[in-house]
């Protein structure tokens, strides 16, 4: 395309490429700096996950946030890939597990029942030789039982590295940690590979959930995913629920859990702490912890 536009087009193309590379390098330098000297720039937002079958909050998903003093808020869609390429994802991931783990221990104590913690894990993290031992050591140190932790790995990425993923995730799963296929339905899983993955949970991608309003095909696809999950003995979490209609449909279709702006946006630890207590107080007595 650039070539057909002649020299000017090529120059424009080059300058856009250069801008992207500059931005990437800037983010890498700034992220390295934040991790080493100013970790307060990194925080975690939490989004509650609601059990549609039990009728109460069953856990929270931890989502990394980066607030730079001059660049402002940088979304994880931008900085996670940079962290992966720059070899910084291990440090980011360790920070998220540590901080989110601490919060969940405190909230579980306040609620009087174990809250689940969902953490996103990129394949780069799974490639680290000692990742299994490091996660287990952190859980032990924080006093989190393995069954409280769910690790989310994007479905499409799992498929690109099946041997590595099966090896590492199987070892984590043997210790009791649950494994979720994130953004399910956007990749190209063959049924054969899917059945071999060490999974406990399928997270139905937001694109299908948002289709529930208009398209009956979205309903059919979600139904098929839920049936598949059921056949493989997996639970299901629908992500990105934004309306009452989507919420009700997913509950009727038998989806296990739901999360999304409709119920609660990802919020700071302080805000989520109050939200959890408020929702727990409003539960009917038989659902409250003793
Ligand atoms: P994800 O794990 O699929 O997370 C769901 C994303 O959807 C989050 O975006 C969340 O804020 C957003 N979301 C939740 N409910 C709704 C809704 O109702 N409507 C809409 N439109 N969006 C909703 P976020 O926080 O920007 O994170 C983007 C992605 O970055 C995550 O997708 C995950 O893949 C990655 N990520 C975030 N934190 C981490 C982390 O600590 N480690 C790694 N490896 N990846 C992370
Ligand atoms: Mg996720
Ligand atoms: Mg997702
Ligand atoms: Mg995603």
UniProtKB/TrEMBL annotation:
Q: Which residues form the EAL domain?
A: 24-280
* Keywords assigned by UniProt, alphabetized: Membrane, Transmembrane, Transmembrane helix
Whether Glycosyltransferase counts among this entry's keywords is no
* Top-rank taxon, per record: Bacteria
- For the keyword Transmembrane, the answer is yes
In its UniProt entry, what is this protein called? Answer: Diguanylate cyclase (GGDEF)-like protein
Q: Which organism is it from?
A: Armatimonas rosea
The upper taxonomy is: Bacteria, Bacillati, Armatimonadota, Armatimonadia, Armatimonadales
**From the entire protein, which fragment is shown?**
498 to 787 of 787
